[in-house]
């Protein structure tokens, strides 16, 4: 199955008609770090633009060796996003993670020795049993490791996950009864904003923080509505006019490519005005309003400015600190208005 999927992926990439030369590459979804290094090199070799300004691979801590890191670097990867979640052992155990803080420390050292110094650390605020003290412990590890980029995600209940389904059923497994309150989770996030800023790691997007020059170039393309091409099962693409999505399952994706069919499952016209608000306001820099934007969205803009959730300065609009915490409520107001 893996060999057939790889063949389909390579076929899709090689058949793509590039309207631009890629500057960034992002290997994500699932655990691409487990893909054989030779196969990974074949995938990257099929993408034009090497060497890219930024080429990221998502990785779960616990499997990065000296040899693997060197092979990634030779393939063109220069950025690694580590799904750490927490540096506190009891929280990691609850989530089923096998790594420890010391494993993360060792593997970051391995990556740097291989020449990969652009590293992101993912943290989750709101894990079962998490406290202000344990959250500060995780943030202290960020300082200790001198990570240049940190992603902070507030826990969301996903009914498709073991923890999410347990919470929805009022169960007791996986630490479900010990999930902090929404107010506590918001407090953790606000603590992260302050503590990371003290380290020189500044918020530039709702969930993303970086030292100057280490912002994710690839993700900025999403938030600034620049074109991108996605390949593989459930991959998304955008050409500035159309948003498209591939079929979701690996088996259907493989079968479609093998029979000469397109992997695309759906395509919709992009709404540039609505998307500017829904996507662009995620950035700390905010958006610049055109005259038509202000008149079309006058009512929600006035309301959120009055409530202190949006800040309007001339023709510039951005979320306030409080607005970031209530971003879902704010951003969805601009869809279908």
Going by helix content, strand content and strand pairing, the class is alpha/beta
First CA to last CA: what distance?
A: 45 Å
Counted up, domains total 2
Number of strands: 13
The CATH architecture of the largest domain: 2-Layer Sandwich
Strand content: 15-25%
**What's the CATH class label of the largest domain?**
Alpha Beta
Radius of gyration: 21 Å
In helices, the fraction of residues equals 40-55%
Q: Could you describe the largest sheet, including whether it forms a barrel? A: 7 strands, mixed
Low-pLDDT residue intervals, each spanning 5 or more residues: none
Query: SSE order in H/E notation?
Result: HEHEHEHHEHEHHEEHEEHEHEHHEEHH
Mean pLDDT: 93
Overall, the morphology is: globular
Lateral arrangement of strands in the main beta sheet: 1-2-3-4-5-7-6
What does this protein look like?
It contains 15 helices and 13 strands. The longest helix has 17 residues, at 182-198. The chain has helices at 2-15, 37-45, 66-75, 89-95, 101-113, 132-145, 162-168, 182-198, 217-223, 250-258, 272-280, 291-296, 298-306, 321-325, 327-331, and strands at residues 24-27, 54-59, 79-85, 118-125, 149-154, 202-205, 208-210, 236-238, 242-246, 264-269, 287-288, 310-313, 316-319. With 337 residues, it is of the alpha/beta class. The strands form three sheets. Strands 1-2-3-4-5-7-6 form a seven-stranded mixed sheet, with helices on one face. The protein has a three-stranded antiparallel sheet with strand order 8-9-10, with no helix packed on it. The radius of gyration is 21 Å and the shape is globular. The protein folds into two domains: 21-223, Transcription Regulator spoIIAA (2-Layer Sandwich); 272-334, no CATH class.
């Amino acid at each position: 199955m893996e060999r057939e999927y790889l063949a389909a992926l390579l076929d899709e990439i090689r058949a793509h008609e590039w309207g631009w030369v890629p500057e960034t590459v992002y290997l994500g979804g699932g655990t691409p770090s487990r893909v054989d290094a030779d196969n990974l090199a074949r995938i990257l070799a099929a993408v034009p633009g090497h060497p890219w300004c930024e080429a990221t691979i998502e990785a779960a801590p616990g499997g990065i060796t000296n040899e693997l890191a060197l092979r990634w670097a030779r393939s063109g990867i220069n950025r690694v996003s580590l799904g750490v979640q927490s540096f506190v052992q009891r929280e990691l155990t609850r989530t089923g993670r096998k790594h420890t803080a010391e494993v993360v420390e060792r593997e970051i050292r391995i990556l740097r020795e291989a020449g990969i110094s652009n590293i992101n650390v993912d943290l989750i605020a709101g894990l079962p049993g998490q406290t202000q003290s344990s959250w500060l412990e995780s943030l202290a590890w960020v300082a200790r490791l001198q990570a240049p980029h940190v992603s902070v995600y507030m826990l969301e209940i996903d009914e498709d996950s073991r923890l999410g389904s347990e919470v929805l059923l009022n169960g007791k497994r996986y630490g479900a009864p010990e999930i902090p309150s929404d107010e506590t989770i918001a407090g953790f996030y606000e603590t992260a904003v302050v503590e990371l800023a003290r380290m020189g790691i500044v918020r530039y997007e709702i969930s993303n923080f970086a030292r100057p020059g280490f912002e994710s170039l690839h993700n900025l393309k999403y938030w600034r509505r620049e074109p991108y091409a996605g390949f593989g099962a459930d991959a998304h693409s955008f050409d500035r006019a159309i948003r498209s999505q591939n079929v979701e399952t690996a088996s259907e994706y493989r079968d479609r490519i093998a029979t000469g069919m397109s992997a695309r499952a759906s395509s919709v016209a992009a709404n540039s005005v609505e998307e500017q608000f829904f996507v662009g306001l995620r950035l700390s820099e905010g958006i610049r309003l055109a005259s038509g934007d202000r008149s079309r969205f006058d009512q929600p803009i006035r309301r959120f400015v009055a409530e202190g959730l949006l800040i309007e300065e001339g023709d510039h609009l951005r979320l306030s600190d409080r607005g970031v915490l209530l971003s879902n409520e704010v951003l969805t107001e601009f869809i279908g208005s």
